[in-house]
Please model this.
Amino acid sequence: MFKSVVNLLVGLVTYALYALTGRIKPWVSQGIGLLMSGFVGLVVYGLVVWFIQHTLNFWYLEEILRYIPAAPLGALAAYEMFFSCRYEVPVGRVGVAKIFGSLTEITFTDGIQWVPFFVKIITEPGPDEKFVLSIPGTRIGTQDGTEVYFGTFAPNSIQYSITDAVRYIVVDDPEAALCAEYMGAAKMFFGQAAEAAAARNEGRLFPDFVMLPSKGEDDVQHAAFFTRLEAAKFKDADGTEDDLFSPEALRMLRDEAGTFASNTKLWGIGNVLAFVPDVREDPATQEATEKLQAAEQAGKTLSVKMASLTAHLKGLTDLDVNPNAALAATLKVSGENVEFVHRDMPEFMGMPGGVAAGINQHRKGRNRHGNKQRSQSSGGAKAAGT
Model:
């Protein structure tokens, strides 16, 4: 009966202090411990005095001895009660109370706490401690049927803290839940993009999407983010500019905005920081696109060069310059050779003024010069051999 009354009083006082202060601080719990230890010491002192009075009631022994053992025994009981029930919560950690084996919402800050013998403290990381979780890669289909390679070449990662130790303990595997929620948000976001190449270029928008607060908590931040999404553009294959997200896609993203942060709170996880993810299009598609772009650029460069040579050569022939001299001057100015003109500028073969004959004459002369050099080289080799 006495033990039950003490437990009830301690429980009521603890819950009252928790309701007033949130997490119980060391000075609060130790103050309760001093009061309870003093109370136990007085109880032990009274019991010893009562025992001596009723057992040593002869020869006036109760008058002589009743206070001698009572005081030290009461002090010893108080000392033992206070110092045997102390528990140290490490710096940066949070203690969660289990009373008679049942998990409660009572938490303790770091420091030396005093807890009764029927209370056990479980320590968990505090909100200031940061954790980094690597996210496995996957492929996500976009609106045009292509795929975004999400974290398949370099793993994506997010940083988080444990903001509610009680909820974190209750969840069986909070990191697995966090990973699944992150991947779900990625599939929702990139799946609404117009095409993989555009999603790759705008991958930096995704961390802001997953870190949006719950709806109603910060309407200004939501409005600013979706203004950025509406302004996100990309160029089609034909070079025209188009929206990265269609109106229907924006509506779906608005419906999902803020759910990631609100769901993680259910698991006691907060302060989530998503790093810029590794977002790429199909490597084969990307390589083919880069080759096509390089070929287009080479074609443009060749067209410019051919137009310049044509204008220079035509200007000279229009001035009645000898075709051979005109061609030689043009090649000298351009730094090209006659093979380039013959191969890549066949329209010169139909130009008036003997340009075609001049080109062929240059080629024949160059071939004769090359053959002469080769024969001289072979003759010199034979002479050296003999």
